[in-house]
Fold:
Amino acid sequence: MATTKKSKSAKDKTKVKDQDVFVWHGVNRKGKTITGELSADNIIQLKTQLRKQGITPSRVKKKAKPLFGIGGDKPITPADIAVITRQIATMLGAGVPLVQTLQMIGSGHNNGKMRKLLADIESKLSSGIPLSDCLRDHPLYFDDLYCDLVNSGEQSGALETIYSRIATYKEKAEALKSKIKKAMTYPIAVLVVAFIVTCILLIFVVPVFQEIFSSFGAELPGFTLMVIALSEFMQAYWYFGLAGLYIAGFLFKRAHRNSQKFRDSVDKNILKIPVIGDLLEKAAVARYARTLSTTFAAGVPLIDALDSAAGASGNAVFRDAILEVKAEVSSGMQMNLAMRNCNIFPDMVIQMVAIGEESGAVDDMLSKVATVYEQQVDDAVDGLTALLEPMIMAVLGVVIGGLIIAMYLPIFEIGKVV
Structure:
């Protein structure tokens, strides 16, 4: 089984709103002609992404943008897939036939792209094609892990149960992703606003005070002179700073997209950041345990399940460690011993896996591990937010308050002159 990393990368592309949307036609690994839509910066990048998915593009055309944004449909996100997965699981559990389920969900959806996607799957399913093969024709939305789990459900005749497990897995994965975004979004947003406000004060407000001070001829305090010097520098070279930030961001994004070595280095170093690194480690362990539990319970062989868990871990350090575990398990070693040899998994996780292997309930133990670590991530996010709020307020107070104090200190000197 291939890892889900490639599919994940492709799905992330669909969330970029400022890229062009292309309609493409191509041939997948099985020789089937498929079509779809994908957002990309240009045609070359689009073809690269399709080839990473095992699709050979034959025709690519830029999709016309709606006039003034009217009539445009939102891209399909992983959260949307999680929602329809739960809907399918619920309706299958209620005894609604699969084809009718897809028709009902599709007809009631408010996103045209989702309606088109479900209509295509329903049409192929009605012609006798297995559901897993229908889903594989849309690798940008349904990765190999998703399709293999559906295939296991079709083979075992327990599609309802499998879909319920997939829905739980997708919901947990999206909830975990949301928690991490929640921890990062607030401080980043506040710091960006503080940076913008500081630049505005230095470029537009401080020069006004400077003119007032110079008209009185009073000697200015050293702190005020330092702020004025910084203001003059910003006025003269602000565009260089802005261009530098843009170029640095562009180069980082390009290197991160094109260099596997660079991505691995970023993943490795980000785990060393205090507090945030610990949060990301817990999130990676939770994803590993949840993915392995879901696939193993669905009847996927352990080796293939480890392959999927490596791709779903979300971090290169854990991905490489899980692949090492896979190699050692393939040679006959017990999974808990292979995990211990990696020196990256917590002792509690290793002990739970060992108990699961002895009792024959590895999937249940991994599910419990995932639940524990997901709760720890939730608690860590709350703790991080509580920690960052006073720190950010202190930084804002020092920066903004310092500028204000620097501007009002000369008032006392002005009073003496008058």
User: Anything to note?
Assistant: The longest strand covers residues 20-27.
